[in-house]
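User: Protein-disulfide isomerase. Structure?
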Amino acid sequence: MAKTTKKPTSTRVVSNARKSAPGGRRSQQTTFIIVASVIAVAVIIGGIIAINRASNDKAKTAAANDAKSVAELKAGVKKIAAAIPADFPKSTVTPDAIVIGNEAAPVTVDMWIDMQCPACKQYEAQAEDTLQKDVMAGDVILHVHPTAILNRMSSTNYSSRAGNAVVCGAQQGKFTAFQNALFAYQPEENSAGLTDKKLIQIGVAAGLDEASLTTCVNKSEQASWIDNSTKAFAKNGYNSTPTVLVNGKQMQQGTLDELTAAIAAAKAAK
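Assistant: Predicted structure:
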């Protein structure tokens, strides 16, 4: 009897077709994986682009803000410098003081200061007009002694750095403008203080030569001068700034009235 060939059932046909046809399950899974991978890569690339774009935007904003801040700083310092009379005597630097005024003046006012000292800033503000008038009249010669007794009040030895900078400025004859500007922008105590870059920006805006000031500040060329001044301050028995003397007599009250009366008395005694 001849064998009868059985036809595959419909279920087996479908199963075989799924295993062998080009468009079967395995092919579909492969296609899905490829598509998913492409999408994932696109998402990652898009994320990177977005992050870079955000970072660039932040950098541009920061740069714009910094430029605005520098412009405002320069304008403020120039205004401070412009308030000093054009014929106000230039400063000179001796081994122990910054000197401003006529050597023949009958009255010598010694001022021991620290650029980090808030009380120095306040005293300078109240005494500035009186001292400028007396110096220009030839009645007073100023001996200013920047020191660094408050380095502990900053994390970067700001007193030493700012003291060095202001002596650098005094060598160029423009101590008063630089000092006034540094006091105006005096940093908070227990902070990092102004950076060297900021000190230079303030000095240049006050009228100092940028190249000379930059070298002097970056190389701390007057660091030993400040160290010696600080040692002299202690040797003299002083313990706080500002310490002000009129013809060798130390002021005790820290007021403008006291200073004015002392200068008048010293002039009368000559």
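Residues 82-269 form a domain with the Glutaredoxin fold (CATH 3.40.30.10). The chain is about 60% helix and 10% strand.
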